[in-house]
Amino acid sequence: MTxxxxxxxxxGWTRLVTARPRLSLLAxxxxxxxxxxxxxxxxxxxxxxxxxxxxxxxxxxxxxxxxEFPDSQPNLLLLLDAGGASVDDPAVAAEADRxxxxxxxxQGVMGVGSYWQSKxxxxxxxxxxxxxxxxxxxxxxxxxxxxxxxxxxxxxxxQGPVDVKVGGIVAVRHxxxxxxxxxxxxxxxxxxxxxxxxxxxxxxxxxAALLPLAVGIVAILGTNAVLSGLAEFTxxxxxxxxLTTALxxxxxxxxxxxIVRRFREELATGADTPTAVATTLRTAGxxxxxxxxxxxxxxxxxxxxxxYFLRSFAYAGTAVVLLAAGAALILLPAALMLLxxxxxxxxxxxxxxxxxxxxxxxxxxxxxxTATLVMRRAPFFAVATTTVLIVLGLPFLxxxxxxxxxxxxxxxxxxxxxxxxxxxxFPGSPGGGLEVLAExxxxxxxxxxxxxxxxALPEVVRVDGPLxxxxxxxxxxxxxxxxxxxxxxxxxxxxxxxxxxxxxxVTGAGAVLVDSKQAIAGQLPWAAAFITIVTLxxxxxxxxxxxxxxxxxxxxxxxxxxxxxxxxxxFQDGHLSSLLGFTSPGSIETTLPVLMFCVAFGxxxxxxxxxxxxxxxxYDHTGDHARAVRLGLQRTGGLITAAAVILAVVMVAIGxxxxxxxxxxxLGIALAVLMDAMVVRSLLVPAIxxxxxRATWWAPAxxxxxxxxxxxxxxxxxxxxxxxxxxxxxxxxx
Length: 734
Prior knowledge:
This protein has helices spanning about 10-15, 15-20, 20-40, 55-70, 90-105, 115-120, 140-150, 170-205, 205-230, 240-270, 275-300, 310-340, 365-375, 380-395, 415-425, 445-455, 485-495, 510-545, 545-560, 560-570, 575-580, 590-620, 625-655, 660-690, 700-710, 720-734, and strands spanning about 75-80, 110-115, 130-135, 155-160, 160-165, 400, 435-440, 460-470, 470-480, 505-510, 590.
């Protein structure tokens, strides 16, 4: 069966919507109000962790130590500064004992200890003017945050002869959650007005400009409701809210731009409103559908990883993509049915424009000239562009992976100040040591022999313990240097290989990093295979070509090199850290490259589908390959660039966050989007398609029949018969 005989499937989806547009919009309004109610306060129910593998040895050991030895896992630290006095001064010691006793009586707090009780040198600063009280707040993340809010104000500040600052991992995470919520609100306040101005510049009409913004807001509110519901059943990271805002605005605007622009083109040709809507859905609507599927596939791949940090982005990303596409394909047509020609109302560019821009001319535009130049010098542009992209990605070869810590926070954050004091002024490994959980009956002699073997390992500074409770015990091992550097990671392996007469399991920051890297490395090939295979299938269903899907996957991956190179050069090596306002820890958090790849790859496919679908439409109409490439770039180049700039604005607004990982995510993806739209889609894609020529559209006969039966493509089905015969001739030649 050829394209001629296929019914317009996408149009059928919206037949009911376009028949009763007012009812559809009213239903959407009701659902949006319900989404606002369901998603209110969602940030308070989301977590700030999720970087660890829940099935890893380190995770098991951490939970066992929390249960059996709560003193070994303090998450609340009070830093007592005696000023010029010694922490051993009687007045200071008396106040510290009073604070320790008082903290031990707080509900939800256990395992309270201090330097003044244990005299442990690890709890006393080397200059003798600072010392620590350590405790553990119990419960889940929400409960711990509530306990911290209740307890901390009574201890923070001047207490007799000492000044007290509140820190520890629970304070770091709680402060991070608060800052992310504040930064997200600020990012929305920055992005929305700028986006509206850009949309007005693109469309001219204020009415047309408001439509994409409305679709984006519906997608964001709906996704917040989805995340709120998911948080009742599983852990969800608060970082996912940043992606919700960015993709909700960005993709909704992309899809609405494409649909509204095509609708206006159809109106300009003299079509009435119902015909213009039907043609728009049959053409641009199919593109939006395929674009949404390709982006959703890239984001859904993160479900294969065990860390809930990554899985949260899959939840948020797939939800916001599907909601954005649904709103664009269902609500937007209803609005266009009601607006008709009034979609061009309030044309704010009228005074700056002497005549209407052409909607379909072949020659005379900058994009047509660009396409002609690139295809005339295709070998040069293909080689030069590829070389530049590879060179920009070279810094990623020196990437070092680490864990997220307090240095994600701004330097003014109290919890970061506490940890920085510990890092700079206290003995032992900054960030803590490694804990070895020993399970099984053992004698004191066996514990002592094991401790001697551990102390003899390279990179071990000191071994403390064991502390014994029943058939369990634990040792604390302090490594040289940082808690997650290469030496600490080697020590994790050495500890796990050290023989013992009991079962041992290692945890601590270094062990969590080792296990996280192993978990990602184990699932990465499966995720890459999933993205690649499904993307190849979807692009084949769109184009009917064997070569184009392969080109799309390779060129999309190539478009991400600049992002990865910049991430290492800026955020790991610390270049531009003063300008951007962050502190480089000298490493990249392990899960971030996976997240950024999935998001940026999906967005690259989004723009790739826009360009390829229009090229395919022109090729189906004419059978002229070179003309189709030129017209495809001419008619979508400006649209793709405008969409990329708008999405980049949203991502840069997200990148103004004071939390380093969020800053890295926002600025990195903004760079990837701009490189893809302005370099890969404008230069590399037309150059490669010119080099491959009409063979670009070749497919073996069985696959052509499969595409004829199941594939979807843009264009008027009634106009496709002659190009189908031309394509058959190309296929026959192989």
